[in-house]
Amino acid sequence: MDIKAKIDELRTKIEYHSNLYYNEDKPEISDYEYDMLMQELKKLEQKHPEFVDSNSPTQKVGGTAKRQAGVLVRHNVPMLSLQDVFSKEEILKFVEEMQEQLDEPEFVVEYKIDGLSLSLRYEYGDLKLAETRGDGISYGEDVTENAKVIRDVKQKLKDKPEYLEIRGEVYMKNSDFAAVNEMQELSGKKVFANPRNCAAGTLRQLDPAITKERKLSMFVFNIQQMKGISFETHTQGYEFLKKQGIPVIDDYRLCRTGEEVWKAIEEIGEKRGKLPYDIDGAVVKINRYKDRELLGATSKVPRWAAAYKYPPEEKETVLKGIELSVGRTGRITPTAVFDPVRLCGTSVSRATLHNQDFIDELEIGVGDTVVVYKSGEIIPKIKEVKKEKRPCGWIKFQIPDACPACGEKIVRDRDTADMKCINENCPAQLERHIINFVGRDAMDIKGFGSVYISDLVQRGYIKNAADIYTLKDHRDALIEEGIIGKEKNTDKLLAVIEKSKENDAYKLLTGLGIPNVGKAAAKTIMRKVRTFDALMKASVEQLQEIEDIGEISADCIRRFFDKTENQQLMERFYQAGLNMECLEQENEDNRFLGKTFVITGTLLDMDRKEAAALIERFGGKVTSSVSKKTNYLLAGEHAGSKLAKAEELNIPVISKEDFLKMIEGQE
Q1: Which member of 60, 227, 408, 584 lies 3.0 to 4.6 Å from 423 by CB, making a disulfide possible if both were Cys?
Q2: Is the separation of the CB atoms in 523 and 497 below 8 Å?
Q3: Which residues make Cβ contacts (< 8 Å) with residue 624, sequence separation at least 6?
């Protein structure tokens, strides 16, 4: 791969992960992995300045301004990111450069809190605006109403300067994060991956009551702008803020030499994991404001500060056991159970071992001392085994031949590492099949949580998906046994089940869990065949005539409906009154037939789902990623890496206005 291609590949990858972190609050890789990608790109651009582009991630602050919690507002002061460093040598070099440019500079070393940046504006002591970082340069989101319910945000100051703008980090204490996730679990909702994601999502909530309930916290780490008041140093500003009752970064240290700065960083690192909140580094700042003004900033970072990033957190623990679970398809998944360790703000005691090949590769057995880390600071993983600490009598773990749920034989899939239970009536597979059936993409039976499903399966109320629609016949017994709850909860769930009978037929097809037939394929199939009666009679050849349905998918569908038990299942659905026909009217206007769209960015006054529905209504298809098969990229504000990919592949890029003209037949 040539240098230009490598740079383009890195830029695309970084843009993708930057969007997940800043805008979606769903990172897939760790901060460290992201930082290493950015460092690699910076080095390549430094060596090849002819390829430096103003749109490169190295030239941007990161993130975009969104319109979820409130309107966009213009920054009075840019909310820049910090220069990242990863070694003692880089820290000493930074200090040395500051000493060469300034007269006896002082350095403040403090925690780098892992949260969401927020700026607060006060006029004559009254809070007027709270804004998120947004794109860091021009715009952020107005989240004032949510900020007002954060306990650390003061709505009135004791002193009343003409204007004061301060910047801090909104975060969640580990105890508050645990409480939120406990409530999510009790409510049958998805738990948050880590405190940072939870804080970011909470601050953008439309309902301040939810923000208040989740107990966000905030530390202030900088005075951005002031009128009617002045300070010579950062630490003097901190003392003023403390008098106003505003929490500032804990335990900051004042240093004058490189070795003092490094010692402070090491001491902070030793406290990592012992604090009641997460930190992801240490920040080194010039103390005197006049020195900061003299140094200024680049388009991305202030020259007077640097952020030291600690290496990824890893911990040793002892493997106590290996549990086996059975998935909806019968696949056996081994899970390591070990002594709890704290990583990235949460207590971890389990990690997947994937399959027998993974176990063999690491040579894992019960009693082993293993090194655990978090991938993307979210997913616990085992990195290695400390073989020198292996106990006497150690035996490598082997997945048994019998299913842990039903005792039937386990076989290995040809050409894969998967081991599966061959019993289609395995109760563990049934539970997961029902979870899929009632899920959002399938029958969307809200409130039908996995705990209820497990209980109903174990007590014999559900033996297949059709039994869901006979639960109403057992209403009194369900209430008496308290499986779903009291009368109100039971009736509520039964009503939702009844309502689901009216769903479009593609949702039922999705819920059947036929291999290689997901939501998108189910929609395409039902639009073509219209009824389940026609689908069940269709040959493999006829199914392959449907757009995007290949031989494998067609064969899976045919084999599913050839089974007597599945034919009986469909008959029970019919007898229960489920809709078995496509509800969407056949559209004579198929102007987008055979066309594939990708939607990216913010479409003003139009929801992405609304745009996707219009495309599908006129026969088109919407996919999530740009490829050579994409016909159009519908791009709104802050389009990001998908726009770059489309331009690279010469794919037509259209605006919302262009799209509406296409809908109206003007193009």
Answers
A1: 408
A2: no
A3: 598
Three-state SS at 48: coil
Question: Given the DSSP bridges, would you call strands 596-600 and 621-623 parallel, antiparallel or unpaired?
Answer: parallel
Tell me if the pTM is above 0.85: no
Q: Residue 120 burial by CB count (10 A; 0-12/13-18/19+): exposed, middle or buried?
A: buried
Quickly tell me which residue has 């003392």 as its tokens: 239
pLDDT value at residue 59: 66
At 339, the pLDDT band (50, 70, 90 cuts) reads: very high
Q: How many CB atoms lie within 10 A of CB 482?
A: 11
Contacts for 142 with CB less than 8 Å, ≥ 6 apart = 69, 70, 71, 72, 73, 129, 130, 131
286: Cβ contacts below 8 Å, ≥ 6 apart: 98, 102, 105, 106, 107, 108, 234, 292, 295, 304, 305
> Is 112 among the residues known to form the active site?
yes
Between CA 206 and CA 542 the distance in angstroms is: 48
Distance CA 263, CA 266 (A): 5
pLDDT score, position 272: 78
- Report how far residue 59's alpha carbon sits from residue 332's, in angstroms, rounded to the nearest whole number: 46
Residues 290, 291, 294, 296: is their CA dihedral positive or negative?
A: negative
The phi, psi pair for 490, rounded to 5°, reads: -65, -50
Please list, in sequence order, all residues whose beta carbon lies within 8 angstroms of the beta carbon of residue 417, skipping any fewer than 6 positions away. Answer: 354, 355, 356, 357, 358
* Secondary structure E strands in 393-533: 410-412, 419-421
The dihedral sign for the CA sequence 136, 141, 146, 147: positive
Rounded to whole angstroms, how far apart are CA atoms 388 and 597?
55
pLDDT at 48: 78
The H or E element that residue 21 is part of is none
Which residues, 6 or more positions from 527, have their beta carbon under 8 angstroms from its beta carbon? 506, 582, 584
Which two three-digit tokens encode residue 334?
A: 């081994």
* AA identity, residue 578: L
pLDDT tens digit string along 108-119?
A: 999 999 889 999
Tokens representing 415? 């050409």
> Smallest Cα–Cα separation from 100: which of 300, 330, 354, 294?
294
Asked if 25 and 6 touch (Cβ cutoff 8 Å), the reply is no
Alpha-carbon dihedral sign for residues 502, 507, 509, 511 = negative
SS3 285: strand
Q: How far apart are CA 509 and CA 579, in angstroms?
A: 11
Q: Is the pLDDT of residue 241 over 90?
A: yes
Determine phi and psi for 510, rounding to 5 degrees. Answer: -60, -45
Extract the tokens encoding 130. Answer: 């709270």
Place of tokens 């645990």: 178
Give tens-digit pLDDT for 556-589. Answer: 899 999 999 899 999 999 999 999 999 876 555 6
Q: Which residue has the higher pLDDT, 662 or 123?
A: 123
Residue 413: DSSP 8-state: P
The whole-angstrom distance between residue 651's C-alpha and the CA centroid of its chain comes to: 28
Reference 646, options 15, 1, 61; nearest CA is 15
